[in-house]
User: Which sequence fits this backbone?
């Protein structure tokens, strides 16, 4: 590496990393050492992959190399991992280094720590897509995930089930125990319902006392077993300031593709079945 360039990097406030043509690290500057927690000697000879956090998909790195090998400059925010294991966000520019002949001799990256900015953006995004009371996905995120579930299921010829769940006599609960009591019930139902499903499933609050569920890879028979658990879990009274608040729920479900095959129809049928469950006395599901 050119001695003058090396001296320049020593005083550069950006985190600078230089690699050879094969992507092996040949130099990092003091700013990069401070950012990553690694000393230069610990990184030289290794691949920048040592900093990977697992956040980015393989397509991200394919695009990076396709851009660099075409002679271009790659710009992105990387979520990497420090030596300590802590994740950090780095706004990075990577470009090829050329010899006087024009041949590529390696690559250089200049990065700036944008971790705080990224965290603030994450908070804003979370607030825009989640319910503030229960911290569940809101209607916007629920519909987005429903669209994703439809595309995924259609592509892979898989099943999934949409559920609309509503609290029985919730207006009376609010009247008897006030809005704080009602909030306690909503939080309890959110937690209980979430404990009955898998991590791959979605439980969202899509209205005042209405919840939407997406049960991934679940047909009618498997959905019935989940709904049995959900109805039973939500029939246990909720304790609120020493009072026992009676709670039950009604749920309607519609399986893709046997019941309906569009977003509109899945939601419509699930909603109609939820009201059918209510008319039958509540504390039950209709599938």
Assistant:
């Amino acid at each position: 590496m050119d001695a003058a360039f090396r001296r320049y990097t020593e005083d550069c406030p950006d985190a600078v990393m230089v690699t050879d043509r094969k992507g092996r690290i040949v130099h990092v500057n003091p700013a990069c050492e401070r950012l990553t927690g690694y000393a230069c000697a610990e990184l030289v000879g290794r691949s920048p992959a040592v900093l990977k956090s697992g956040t980015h998909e393989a397509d991200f790195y394919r695009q990076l190399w396709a851009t660099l090998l075409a002679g271009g400059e790659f710009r992105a925010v990387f979520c990497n991992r420090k030596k300590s294991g802590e994740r950090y966000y780095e706004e990075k520019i990577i470009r090829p280094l050329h010899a006087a002949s024009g041949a590529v001799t390696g690559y250089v990256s200049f990065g700036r720590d944008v971790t705080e900015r990224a965290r603030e953006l994450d908070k804003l995004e979370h607030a825009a897509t989640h319910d503030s009371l229960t911290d569940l996905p809101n209607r916007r995120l629920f519909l987005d995930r429903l669209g994703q579930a439809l595309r995924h299921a259609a592509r892979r010829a898989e099943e999934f089930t949409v559920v609309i769940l509503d609290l029985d006599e919730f207006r009376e609960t609010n009247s008897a125990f006030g809005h704080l009591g009602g909030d306690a019930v909503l939080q309890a139902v959110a937690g209980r319902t979430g404990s009955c499903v898998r991590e791959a499933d979605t439980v969202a609050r899509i209205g005042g006392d209405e919840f939407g569920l997406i049960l991934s890879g679940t047909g009618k028979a498997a959905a019935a077993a989940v709904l049995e658990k959900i109805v039973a879990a939500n029939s246990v009274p909720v304790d609120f300031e020493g009072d026992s608040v009676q709670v039950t729920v009604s749920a309607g479900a519609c399986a893709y593709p046997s019941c309906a095959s569009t977003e509109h129809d899945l939601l419509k049928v699930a909603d109609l079945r939820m009201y059918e469950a209510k008319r039958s006395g509540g504390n039950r599901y209709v599938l």
Notes: Residues 3-120 form a domain with the Beta-Lactamase fold (CATH 3.30.450.20).
